[in-house]
Amino acid sequence: MNYRHAFHAGNFADVVKHLALSAVILHLRRKEKAFCAIDTHAAAALYDLEGAQALRTGEAKTGIGRLRGLSGTDLPEALAAYLDCVRQEGEGRYPGSPRIAARLLRPQDRLVAIEKLPEDAAALRSALSEFRNVRVVEGDGYERLPGLLPPAERRGVILIDPPYEADDEFERAVELLAGAHRRFATGIYLLWFPIKFKGTADAFCGEVRTRVPASMSRLDIDLGRPAESEKERLSAAGLLVVNPPFGFEDEMNAATAILSALLGRSAEQPATIKFAAA
User: Fold this and answer.
1) Which of 10, 121, 183, 207 is deepest in the core (most CB within 10 A)?
2) How many domains does the chain have?
3) What's the pTM?
4) Is 222 a known active-site residue?
């Protein structure tokens, strides 16, 4: 599996993942006490949707491209906040998770964004340079996260979003989350994963459930059977949420009820976005 961010920025999986991140951060903001957001695989943080990498896949057109027209005061709070973050970047640009998080922080909150690749780390520093209370760490998220936990604030959200390029990446992601939870059991964790085969995804989630003794929600998004020409493209993905905040599933259900028709392959084949047994 190769899921480098720049090729897939703004696609259907990004939309749901970033919506969930926005919902969690809005929940953390409801209390005055500061919190820390940590992104273990932050990548470049800002993407040109007209650039060569994005155009090579064209995935943003059927992801965030279909949401540009959504507006109004009747949108669910998390969806409105997420779309506002996107619109602030201007036409043709899409924010990655660290830039979305940075926009949603309050003065007392902070962000730690980790990126291993030097070129992406340099782009990340540039993309986050305008924000206060942000630290960029150039290094391997698997190695750096344990030393950042527990955060001084004792409140926070950790996004674990690897590229799943290595054969053992699923195993490493489970190990990282289990170890992080031992250090910071009250943190909220978002673990993104691609779904190429349902059995593999179910086994992965089952292993997380076994290793991490906490409440958990699993949100899957499935575009349905791809056309023959698109079989190599990702058509389903999931998000495991450890220690989901109160009301999280209701908030996400309200937002994804709007998104399912927009992200589907056609009016007759809407996307399936639903919570499943972890």
Assistant:
1) 10
2) 1
3) 0.95
4) no
